[in-house]
Amino acid sequence: MTREPEAAASPLAEVLGGRTGALDAGVPAVAFVTGWAIAGAGSTTDSTNAVLWGAGAALAAGVVIAVIRLARGRRPAAVVLGLLGVAVASLVVLRTGRAADFFLLQIASNVLSTLVWAASVVIRWPLLGVIVGLALGQKTRWRADPWLLRGYSRASWVWAAQYVVRVAVFVPLYLSDQVIALGIARALTWVPLVACVALSWPVMRTALPEDHPGIRYPRSRSGESTHDQ
């Protein structure tokens, strides 16, 4: 069966989603900074109290976001992981008493994500292909398509670069104890995420022949669609 190639309006965007999730994820960080600032940020005598209020605000925001995500039909496991991240960040900052440490987990996560995305390309299991393949119910059939494998590898480097940019922004702010700037940077992480979603398909398309049917219909090396096999 002959199929028209997918439109250039980024079919990956339909699978990967937009900026809503990233916006939601930034709310607890904004809540932390807001609570911390209102409760006496910069005051030596009130620093512990400020961190306590900030952590409480972040946890409250995390619970609200979790409820909203569940109401939207999000997977419970993903919701729990998101809330767990807020809880761990709050525990870290309560333990250390340093407000900037609320973002320590975020920085570590970005460093780890950089390594994982890069390693996935090196071992020829590009993470973008794994994510999209699972989302489309293809499992690993896309790996039999040399063009998709190459395309997912190229696009996965875009995602690795996103995390490099995040680390390059967060680490100097963390080292200089710029808590408010860290909160702003965390709230704006949807920007590189949206850029990645937008760029992933054009970058992938450079690896696909003109007559390739697209990500939904992987081909085998013989040129036959694995969907039809």
From TrEMBL:
Q: Which residues cross the membrane?
A: 21-39, 51-70, 77-94, 114-136, 157-175, 181-201
Pfam families assigned to the protein according to its UniProt record, in alphabetical order? DUF3159
Is Transmembrane helix included in the keywords of this UniProt record? yes
User: Which InterPro entries has this protein been placed in?
Assistant: UCP010219
Q: Which residues form a coiled coil?
A: none
Q: Does the keyword rRNA processing apply?
A: no
Q: Which UniProt keywords apply?
A: Membrane, Transmembrane, Transmembrane helix
- Full protein name: DUF3159 domain-containing protein
